[in-house]
Amino acid sequence: MTAYKFPQLESPLTYNTNEIFLIASGDLRLSANQTCWPAQADMESQIVEAFTAEGKNVKRAHPYDESLKHGFIWNQRMGMDVFKSIPPQAPLIVAVAVWQYSYHVLSGLRDHQGPILTIANWSGQWPGLVGLLNLNGSLTKMGVNYSTIWSDDFKDDFFLKGIRQWLTESIISHNTHHVRDLNLAQLPIEESQLGVALAKQLKNDKAILGIFDEGCMGMYNAIIDDELLNPCGIYKERFSQSALLAEMRLVSEEEASKVRAWLDEKGMKFLTGSDDVTELTDAQILEQLKMYIAAVRIADAFGCDAIGIQYQQGLKDMTPASDLAEGLLNDSQRPPVYHRETGRELFPGKALPHFNEVDEGAGVDALVTNRIWTAMGLDPSTTLHDIRWGRHYKDNHIDEFVWVFEISGAAPPSHFVGGYAGAVSERQPAMYFPKGGGTIKGESKPGEIVWSRVYVQDNALHVDMGRGSVVTLSSEEMQFRWKSTTPQWPIMSAVLHGVSRDQLMARHKANHIQVVYAPSSEMADKALAAKAAMFAEMGIAVHLCGDVNMG
């Protein structure tokens, strides 16, 4: 008889009833984890104090690492190992004060049987709210039950009421009465017919999303399986990032210099220096413009209708950031790019929608937006933004909660006050991008917007949609908001119609929100109606959020 060596399974872990475990997922980049750790540590101390006052002992499931100089879970294997020490039925807090890679902890959260609570500090310093929303969207996609809460100081009634409900009921109830399912019968006839016709055309002709490696930034929620995409008429062309680098090598200095001259003529500014380590240099800019040209040529060669570049990982160690290229791609008025052999202009007079960080939910949204806005004769230039932060603002004209929507450079210059002449390129922070590269920074112009988000829930595609306005704030307030977040990045000051701060946070299933302008409130309402009809005909469940006028 063969004597097999069976593995020894550990005994089930136990815990005290007044004990709550806490974990902190972090970045993959050591420099970011070290820089952001003090904010995380400060938040955790406030969380511990709040739960101690409720008679609970918060136990950190992994220690501060003296050698790394931070206390984050910084890769997937570490996350798996940490969860071995957490009793499966124990209450668990995921504390988020920074941008975090959700996949570091998803394996443990997928199997965890106890109540899960995600918590963030209401701060713009580091993208903690962005990290929280990404984690929430990833848990939603996985079908894992969780509760979520956020706070300025962890002493306010909203926070305390929430954690007390979680401690007694294992859930936090939020007000999401602003959401209602789309009633197709309420859509205006002409816009409804347009949306349906465009959806049928998409299913018949089919579209391609060019994907330069999936899973950027640990965003599990940003990956949409083919089985969900294909019935909509959307397919993926999967590229390696090495293909982009290879194509960049075929772009000449002369070609990149012509694009730079085009931007200079339009009045775009570049804040350059000579120190490649800390400053934006002309050589970095030319490399970014080679990426822009290469991306357009690859999209043309493979018939892509939109593309997504995974700029944060992999490429950051090989070439300057892709932000400059991304913003140019998203603008209908952009530097011309020509076929290398024939000289044919590629996508003349058109935006080539780019979905930042390969967020495929944003890619589907950008594709649909482009089709609807183009058919209606509107400027289809669109972008995603991080839901970064916000606060109430009051002056003679405004008395509203105003969001800071901010992204690392993918916003089209047509969204800015002054267009290209109002855009400036500043070096990405060195802790994120050792090879440098500039963003496209600007202040978004006042006007009417349609916002939306495509996401996965219950193994099906959904979209939340609503209306908003971009407002003009005082120069002092704008400088405060930039300094409170990331001053190198483009910013949008947005008021969402009929959606409060806490309602958006409770409902939104992603770190990103898609935005597009319309020339008037009336046209924005019509475009939203057509877009909703197109989504619905594609088989995507549509949910209207806040004050939406269907005419």
Could you explain how this protein is built, in words?
This protein is an alpha/beta fold and 551 residues long. The chain folds into two domains: 19-169, 3-Layer(aba) Sandwich (Rossmann fold), CATH 3.40.50.1070; 184-545, L-fucose Isomerase, Chain A, domain 2, CATH 3.40.275.10. Helices cover 34% and strands 20% of the residues. It has 15 helices and 18 strands. The chain has helices spanning 30-53, 76-83, 103-111, 128-142, 157-169, 189-205, 226-229, 241-248, 253-266, 282-302, 323-329, 360-375, 475-484, 501-507, 521-537; strands at 19-23, 57-60, 92-96, 116-121, 147-151, 179-181, 207-212, 234-239, 269-270, 306-309, 382-394, 399-406, 424-425, 447-457, 460-470, 491-496, 512-518, 541-545. It has a six-stranded antiparallel β-barrel with strand order 11-12-16-15-14-17. The chain has a five-stranded parallel β-sheet with strand order 2-1-3-4-5. A three-stranded parallel β-sheet has the order 8-7-10, sandwiched between helices. Helix 6 packs across helix 15 and helix 12 crosses helix 15 (521-537). The longest helix has 24 residues, at 30-53. The chain is globular and about 70 Å long. The chain starts with 18 loop residues before the first strand and ends in a 6-residue tail after the last strand. The mean pLDDT is 96.
